[in-house]
């Protein structure tokens, strides 16, 4: 049968993309797909390719993942990630993680290094430390755009300063 040609599909999120962001979003999806595809071309696994593509989007402020995430009520970045291996249906996930640039890497470690499927908040934080995942200041994940969206979406009469430390 010969070798199958590798294929990767990248989904950059849902919702409306405004004209001024269209080019950056398209370029980001193409970059993520190409990074994942290059892993496949080098003989890397599908899971390697997915992790690489998602990491590319987590590092790109155009997407609601990693840097550029939508802020929680307190104005913080709190992220979720999940990864699955289609060969054996193993999966790993993290939720409510903070101060980590690439939650997809942590989700993969949950899949490969634990008997758990999901770690959340404090447990995920302790696991990240144990695995040597570097922490970054939460502010580094906040973009001007996400801060503006957060302010706009606050409940009327709420005081955003009371949420901030």
UniProtKB/TrEMBL annotation:
<comment type="similarity">
    <text>Belongs to the Ntn-hydrolase family.</text>
</comment>
<dbReference type="GO" id="GO:0005737">
    <property type="term" value="C:cytoplasm"/>
</dbReference>
<dbReference type="Pfam" id="PF01112">
    <property type="entry name" value="Asparaginase_2"/>
</dbReference>
<protein>
    <submittedName>
        <fullName>ASGL1 asparaginase</fullName>
    </submittedName>
</protein>
<dbReference type="InterPro" id="IPR000246">
    <property type="entry name" value="Peptidase_T2"/>
</dbReference>
<dbReference type="GO" id="GO:0033345">
    <property type="term" value="P:L-asparagine catabolic process via L-aspartate"/>
</dbReference>
<dbReference type="GO" id="GO:0016787">
    <property type="term" value="F:hydrolase activity"/>
</dbReference>
<dbReference type="InterPro" id="IPR029055">
    <property type="entry name" value="Ntn_hydrolases_N"/>
</dbReference>
């Amino acid at each position: 049968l010969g070798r199958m040609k590798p294929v990767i599909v990248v989904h950059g999120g849902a919702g409306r993309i405004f004209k001024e962001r269209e080019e950056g979003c398209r370029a980001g999806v193409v970059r993520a797909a190409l990074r994942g595809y290059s892993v496949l071309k080098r003989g890397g696994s599908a899971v390697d390719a997915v992790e690489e593509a998602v990491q590319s989007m987590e590092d790109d402020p155009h997407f609601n993942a990693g840097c550029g995430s939508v802020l929680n009520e307190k104005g913080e970045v709190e992220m979720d990630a999940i990864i699955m291996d289609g060969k054996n249906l193993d999966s790993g996930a993290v939720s409510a993680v903070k101060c980590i640039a690439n939650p997809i890497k942590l989700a993969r470690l949950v899949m490969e290094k634990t008997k758990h499927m999901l770690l959340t908040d404090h447990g995920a934080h302790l696991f990240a430390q144990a695995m040597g995942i570097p922490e970054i200041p939460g502010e580094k994940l906040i973009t001007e755009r996400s801060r503006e969206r957060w302010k706009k979406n606050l409940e009327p009469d709420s005081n955003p300063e009371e949420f901030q430390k």
